[in-house]
Amino acid sequence: MSERPAAGERAVIVQLDFGRDDIPEQLEEVRLLAESAGATLCGEVYGRRQSPDAATFAGKGKVQEVAAELAAHDADLVIFNHELSPAQQRNLERTLQCRVIDRTSLILDIFAQRAQSAEGKLQVELAQLDHLATRLVRGWTHLERQKGGIGLRGPGETQLETDRRLLGIRVKLLKERLAKVERQRGVQRKARARGDVLNVSLVGYTNAGKSTLFNALTHAGVYAANQLFATLDTTSRKLWLPEVGNIVISDTVGFIRDLPHSLVAAFHATLEATAQADLLLHVVDSASPSRDDQIAEVNKVLLEIGAQDVPQILVLNKLDLTGLPPAAERDEYGRIQRVRVSARTGEGLPLLRETLTESALEKARTTRHRQSTDESPPTPDTVLDSGSSL
User: Fold this and answer.
1) pTM of this prediction exceeds 0.85
2) Would you say 117 and 181 are in contact if contact means Cβ atoms under 8 Å apart?
3) Phi/psi of residue 282, each to 5°?
4) HSE-CB of 267 using CA atoms within 13 angstroms
5) Of 9, 114, 134, 281, which sees the most CB atoms within 10 A?
6) What crossing angle do the helices spanning 159-194 and 268-275 adopt, rounded to 10°?
7) Of 230, 185, 180, 193, whose CA–CA distance to 210 is shortest?
C-alpha cells in the first residue's frame, strides 16, 4: 500500500529543475498535494540538474542539503515531486534515515483517503498494489531470505516469492470485482443511450471547480473544497432544462500532470463513462497561469481513455478572479465552443444552461432522425425479396 503521511506529519518537499519553465507552478501544485494528504510543510529544497542521479535522483550534495533541512525543522518525511525508482527510494531512506515518498505515492495516498464508494476503494487498492508490485520485484532485497511462514509457502519459497504470490492473488480478485462493476455500468449506459436524454460529463484538471459547478447547476450538495482530488467517486444528477426536460450530468475525478498510469488503469470503469458521454464540459481554472498546460494534460488523459472524439465545450471557470465578463464564444458553424462562468458567484450559468439546451435539442433531432430511418417502411424491392425467400 502507499505510505500515508500521518495527520500533521512534518514534511520537506524536494523539487528539481531539469530545464522546464513551469517550476513555480510545479512547486505550488506539490504544496497543495502535500497539504491535501494531511502533511505539514516545514521546508523546501530545490535545484537544477541536467538529469536525475541514478542512485539518489538528486545527487550527493543535494541529498546532504535535504538532510540539513530535515534536521533544522525536525521533519520526518521527504516528498519528492518526481517519480523515484525503488532503488533510489531505498538509497534515500538509508541515507536520510526517514521515510521518502515520491509523487506517485503521494497521489495514491490522497486517493486512498478520499475514496468513499466500495468501487472507489477497490480502484484505489488495485492502483496501490500495482505500484507496490514494482517495489517487490526490484526493491525489496531485504525480503530475499527464507522466513517462517506457516501454511503459506511451498518448499523452498522465499518471503519475497510469497509476497509476490499473495499480492497477485489479491490483484486478480480486485480485477474480477471491478470487471463485474464495469459490466453493470455497461448495461446502465446502454439503457441510457437508447433514450434521447443528453449525457454530460464534467472533466478537467483537479481543483478547477468541477464539483462547485456541478452543485451550482444541480444543487446536488456533493463535497467541494479548495483541495486537489476533492472528488473521486462519480456522481450523476438530473438537470431540468425548460425547453428539453431532463438531462444527466456526471461529476468525475479530476486529472493532473503525470497522473500515475496505474490510477488511469484502475479507474477505467469510472473513466469509461466519460468516453461514453454525449458531451464533455471541460472545466478550466481560467485564473491559473498554467491553464493551457492543464488543458493539454486533460486532453492527454482523454486520449488515453478513448474519449478524444467526444464533443467538448471549454468552461472557463473562476471569472470572478479574472475580472472578465460572462460570455459564450461560437465557432464558424455557430456552435458554442467556450463559455466564461463563475461557479462560485453564478455569473454566466444562464449562458451555460443555454449551451446545454442547444446540445440537448441537437441530440433529440439526431435521435428522431435515426428512429425515423430505422422505422421507415420497406421498399417494394425489399418486400419482393422477403416474399421470394419464403
Assistant:
1) no
2) no
3) -85, 100
4) 30
5) 281
6) 30
7) 230
